[in-house]
């Protein structure tokens, strides 16, 4: 296992734990922690196992386009799969911040 992958896994897990703890603190309920982890599961899978998604021919791991003239299949580089996982993970955090901001304004 490469050092970069190990650092990426640890950092993504820390971000997911931070999301869970902030959600629990903000909502005042520990019951939201499993929900937050379930929401983080797909981005974490993309970050932790980018090579497993690289050759997945049944979905978005290897499809590059088509536009109705046939399909063009090529493997997606693992760093792009990992980037997509990080994007989704930070998107979840952004959506949660927007939700918290709107709840703060409504009070």
* Secondary structural class: mainly alpha
Number of strands: 2
Helix content: over 70%
* Number of contiguous helices: 4
Low-confidence stretches: none
**Strand order, sheet with most strands:** 1-2
Supply Rg.
17 Å
Strand content: under 5%
What letter string, H or E per element, gives the SSE order? HHHEEH
The largest sheet, given as strand count, sense and whether it forms a barrel, is: 2 strands, antiparallel
What is the CA–CA distance across the termini?
48 Å
Provide mean pLDDT, rounded. 81
What oligomeric state best describes the polypeptide chains here? Answer: single chain
3D architecture notes:
The chain is mostly helical and 107 residues long. It has one domain. The chain has 4 helices and 2 strands; from the N terminus they run αααββα. It has a two-stranded antiparallel ribbon with strand order 1-2. β1 and β2 form a beta hairpin. α1 packs parallel to α4 and α2 runs antiparallel to α4. The longest helix is centred in the C-terminal third of the chain and has 29 residues.
């Amino acid at each position: 296992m490469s050092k970069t992958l190990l650092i990426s896994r640890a950092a993504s897990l820390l971000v997911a734990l931070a999301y869970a703890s902030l959600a629990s603190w903000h909502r005042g309920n520990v019951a939201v922690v499993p929900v937050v982890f379930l929401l983080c599961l797909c981005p974490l899978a993309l970050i932790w196992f980018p090579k497993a998604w690289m050759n997945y021919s049944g979905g978005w791991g290897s499809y590059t386009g088509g536009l109705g003239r046939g399909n063009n299949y090529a493997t997606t580089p693992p760093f792009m799969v990992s980037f997509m996982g990080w994007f989704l993970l930070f998107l979840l955090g952004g959506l949660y911040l927007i939700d918290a901001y709107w709840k703060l304004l409504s009070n």
